[in-house]
Amino acid sequence: MQTATAPAIPANRQKFYDRLSPKAMAPLWEVLKGLVPEQPKSKFAPHVWKFAEARPLLMEAGDLLTAEEAERRVLVLENPAMPGGSRITATMYAGYQLIMPGEIAPAHRHTASALRMVLEGNGGYTAVAGELTEMKRGDLVITPAMTWHDHGQKEQKPVIWVDGLDLHMVNFYEAAFMDHFNDKTQIMSKPQGHSDAMFGSGLGPMQPFSPFGQTSPIFNYSFSKARPALMQVAGANPPDAHLGHALRYVNPQDGGWAMPTIATWLTHLPKGFETKAMRSTDGRTIVVLEGEITIEADGKTFTAGESDVAGIPSWVWTKVRASKDAIYFSFSDRAAQEKLGIYREERK
Ligand code: 1HN
Questions:
Q1: Which band of pLDDT confidence, cut at 50, 70 and 90, is reported for residue 4?
Q2: How many angstroms separate the alpha carbon of residue 72 from the centre of ligand 1?
């Protein structure tokens, strides 16, 4: 354990340190314990953002500026322990995004991978790498690294979704690039439903073909397929004590996570069920799609209902209880941590 107050540095040592700093050197022994903690102690706080509070503010933003002016009109979910950090957890960015009727969020591409969990508004669409997909509530739409993407809404209703991006991981490596397309929308080169037909039906191309590298070639995991699958599995098995009924989004090419850095999964908890306590090294974001859950994280209790978003930092004991039959979506940096060999979890 690190002591709360560091012992005073003897004068002769301090004089020595003072000669090191002009030469851009420092004594490791003064900082070692902070550099290599005995276990993770997140700087971030567990928190729940209420959609009922966010929605009217999003609509106000809709009056203030267009999606085109904003490029992306998003209210960033700021972890309360780090205002201005544009982080929901240590490595993840999240926000509520709004597209108003007739608007276009112009085409661009960047190194960061993005996911959208759709909350509201039929008629909204995302185009990714020359293919358009319609967005319906509960759909998981992914934008692989460096693919062109633009969004829009053809119907007379606002569209709202939750964005999750791995941009802090990319920025940590100082590896971020971004380009703007020279037109508002990209050119469609594939018919709608093409990727799903090619990769999302249990079939696949005869020759190895991975249009997005390590990212799944399916870019809309529709809730109309995911929900019945989850509920069918839930009906046939008892819930796992720690996970409830959970299924993950899979890259059909290799059976791994759908995105190389971000793990994504869907959970059903029957009313009254409470998961046993568990902690893991990933920072997790939950988007509630149906019902209501109570999250106990780091000794604090939060209630999250439909379209509310929860952020749960690394290595805090967490339990989830369903106060109503619940379905919720989760994403975390677990996929990246597994690839680096640093992911850990502990179950009570
Ligand atoms: C982005 O490209 C989108 O495409 C949303 O909808 C949020 C936040 C930071 C950087 C890029 C989008 C973003 C973003």
A1: low
A2: 6
